[in-house]
Amino acid sequence: MLGSLLREHFVEAFENLAFMKALVSHMSEEPHEKWPSIDAVVEEFRAIVSQLSKPQMRKRLIVRKRRSVLKNTSCLLFRCVPLQTTGDEDAPDCT
Question: Could you tell me if 45 and 27 are in contact, meaning their C-beta atoms sit under 8 angstroms apart?
């Protein structure tokens, strides 16, 4: 559960947290009996962080830019598909 939360809200949300992928993956393995104990997670996290440089540790989080499926669909439907016209209006330009 904690692994899924970290993946969804941090690793997938920010570009510069890739160093956490392996740990988060390990924390969210199926079946849940494979999940490490919190002590093992803390130990692994400390080992990962100890390998990062000070500038890496001080970097601001960079939000990953991603478009939702709904936004892409609405863009496609409302901007690029010509609407039925009565003959007076021009069809939208999709270029």
Answer: no
